[in-house]
Each structure stands twice: as structure tokens, then as C-alpha cells.
Design a protein that fits this description.
367 residues; Methylamine Dehydrogenase, Chain H; four-stranded antiparallel beta sheet; 2 helices; 2% helix; Xyloglucanase_GH74; Photosystem II stability/assembly factor-like uncharacterized protein; WD40/YVTN_repeat-like_dom_sf
């Protein structure tokens, strides 16, 4: 079995391949378009379609603006559609800043894109073209959603689940900065906030209906959720019915950006703490990952193989993932340009790449 890791950075797209997830062959930066600067532009989101293995890359050219490229040969060649893949209808008065997230539905051709400004788009042709999900764009709360420090972005899209007891092809959960968590159970026709229990300490009402600065949400294998908030780490079996419960006790800090759920064990997840909103360093100035195996009841550092030297950069919200294999691999990249991989049966982080540009996003799959 071979494994592919797709890495989006501040200056281009890289890929890495491995047979054993310990030794990796890294290539890049990939020139998506030899005729312009697309190969060296920021890549804020990448996706690997689990059904077709089509790769998607959300780029932002300094000259040509944002776009979505796709590859049907695992990154060897790339195609940009003739028309802009994601474009706001004229009547919205909005324009695309960038894509922040790709997610895939049960149908092989269904792709969702979370973008900035706050919006969700849907594709029914594998990501070649997208249409605005109007009901979320026209939600009465939208005018109150504000940009977080990382932009006015829908950065998490989780099709298929509203919670451990409510899963269906018509269910979608999204999270945004700054607005919180919203859910639909009718394929995007209507949306409701699902933020009860998540704090917003920067607002007069610290537990509002919406307006939280959720940094990332991950769906566990049973459909429940883990969330890393602006401050606070949370878990919920069903946000709409049960709300969210804090689970950060045992972590060195409650601030961070990324969280990754185990693909097979709902009680297990990884977290990557950051000192604070003002100090974007790892705690103790040492790169660390923390793991829970009891649903957030306790956490332990899983640092074997990571550098012991002080300050190796933080992990951004989309720069950590799992490949979902039977024996899963876990991956993360840092703002220092280092990428690491570990497997559930190995327990040790192995270096994939070093000294890349800032890592913005990673995705992995068996291929």
C-alpha cells in the first residue's frame, strides 16, 4: 500500500509519498501553471476525494486572484477550469477572497468548499464548478459574523453528521471564524446555530447563541465532535441536543488551532496547544502534540521523535490530519515548515519534510 501526503504552503504545493509512512519522498513545489506564478502562490486548502482520488488545491495568485485547481493523476499534472470555479453571483455584491476548506459528500462527485467571506459552495461535478449554498449566505445571522484574525472564513465542513445519533447524507456541519457552528439536516435548505456551551470571552455575553470564534471542529468515527475554540477545547455527542462540554483539563493551555479525531476510535483525538492568542508559540517553546484516549477526560504528550530544541512553530487549523487507514497515520505541519507523520501502531513521529515554507494545510490518503 502507498500513501500520499499533500502539503499546501505559503509558497506553493508539495507532495510526499511513502510505502511504510516512515520514509518519505518529497516533491515540489509543483508548478500548477507553467505560464504564471500559480506554482509559488499560497495554497490555503487541499483535498483528496476519497472516492475518485482527485486532488483539489485552493490557490491565491497575487496577480490572477483565487482559484481551484484539480489533478486526476495524484499531482503529476494540474488543470484549472476555463471559468472561475468558485464565484459569487452578482446579486450578492461579494467576491471570493480564497477557499479555506474542501470536503466530500457521499456521492463521488459532490464537493463542498468553505470560503472567505463566510460562505459555503457546492459542486456536483467533482470540483470543476461550484454554486453558492444560498440558504446559509442569506441566513439572518450572517451580517453579524465578523472576521477572526485568520479571516472571515468557513474553515470546517463536515458532511454527513449532526452528531453521534443523527447522521444522514443530507446533514452538514460547518464552523467559522467568527460565527460559530451551524448545522443543516435538509441538504443546505435551512441552517441553525449549534453553539450552546462554547464560550466567547471577547463578547459581552460570554455564551451567545452565535458569534463564537471556533478554530476547528473534527468529527469522530461515531459522528460526535471535538472542537478547538479561540479559548477552550470541547466535545459534543450532539451539539444541537446536548451542547458542548469543556475537555481541556490536562492540556498545558486551552488555546490552539488544530484538532484531529481518530478515524476509528471516537474516544481518541489529537490536539496541538499554543501558548495564547497573544503568544503564538508552543508551550515551553517546544513543539508538542497531545492525545486523549478517553474522550478528553485526560491528555498525555505524544512527543517521541519531535525536536527537543526550543521553538519549532505552531500548527495552524488545517495543518493536521489523518489518512483514515485501518492502522491510521497522523500528520501535521508547522509554520516553521516542518512536517511529521506517525502511525497508531508506531507511536513515534517521523520527519516527512523540513524547511518548507509555512505549512498552511495537509491532507493524506492511501492511494
Amino acid at each position: 500500500m502507498a500513501y500520499l501526503l499533500v502539503i499546501g504552503t505559503r509558497k506553493g504545493l508539495f507532495t510526499a509519498r511513502s510505502e511504510d509512512r516512515r520514509g518519505w519522498e518529497v516533491s515540489g513545489p509543483h508548478r500548477l501553471d507553467e505560464a504564471n506564478d500559480a506554482g509559488m502562490s499560497p495554497v490555503y486548502t487541499v483535498g483528496i476525494n476519497p472516492h475518485t482520488k482527485r486532488l483539489l488545491a485552493g490557490t491565491e495568485s497575487w496577480h490572477f486572484g483565487p482559484s481551484v485547481w484539480h489533478s486526476d493523476d495524484l499531482g503529476a499534472t494540474w488543470t484549472e477550469p476555463g471559468a472561475p470555479p468558485i464565484a459569487f453571483p452578482e446579486d450578492t455584491g461579494a467576491s471570493l477572497t480564497r477557499a479555506w476548506q474542501f470536503a466530500f459528500g457521499a456521492d463521488p462527485e459532490t464537493v463542498y468548499a468553505g470560503v472567505e467571506p463566510h460562505a459555503l459552495f457546492r459542486s456536483d461535478d467533482g470540483g470543476t464548478s461550484f454554486e453558492l449554498v444560498r440558504a446559509l449566505w442569506e441566513h439572518p445571522h450572517r451580517t453579524d459574523w465578523s472576521p477572526g484574525a485568520g479571516g472571515a472564513a468557513i474553515h470546517t465542513v463536515l458532511p454527513g453528521t449532526l452528531g453521534s445519533g443523527r447522521r444522514s447524507p443530507e446533514a452538514i456541519t460547518v464552523a467559522m471564524s467568527t460565527g460559530g457552528v451551524y448545522q443543516t439536516e435538509d441538504d443546505g435548505a435551512s441552517w441553525a446555530p449549534a453553539n450552546r456551551g462554547i464560550a466567547a470571552g471577547f463578547l459581552p455575553d460570554e455564551e451567545p447563541e452565535y458569534g463564537q470564534c471556533v478554530h476547528k471542529v473534527a468529527a469522530a468515527s461515531d459522528g460526535s465532535f471535538y472542537a478547538q475554540n479561540h479559548h477552550g477545547v470541547y466535545r459534543s455527542a450532539d451539539p444541537a441536543a446536548d451542547g458542548w462540554s469543556r475537555i481541556e483539563e490536562g492540556l498545558p493551555t486551552d488555546f490552539g488551532f488544530a484538532v484531529v479525531a481518530h478515524p476509528h476510535r471516537p474516544e481518541s483525538a489529537l490536539n496541538f496547544p499554543v501558548v495564547s492568542q497573544e503568544v503564538h508559540f508552543p508551550p515551553g517553546y517546544r513543539l508538542s502534540a497531545y492525545r486523549t484516549d478517553d474522550g478528553g477526560g485526560s491528555w498525555r504528550a505524544v512527543n517521541e521523535g519531535l525536536p527537543a530544541d526550543p521553538y519549532f512553530g505552531i500548527v495552524l487549523r488545517d495543518a493536521a490530519c489523518t489518512d483514515g487507514a485501518d492502522v491510521p497515520g497522523f500528520y501535521f505541519g508547522t509554520r516553521s515548515g516542518d512536517v511529521y507523520a506517525a502511525t497508531d501502531d508506531g507511536g513515534r513521529w517521523e520527519p516527512v519534510a523540513a524547511h518548507l515554507p509555512d505549512v498552511l494545510c495537509v491532507r493524506a490518503a492511501e492511494v
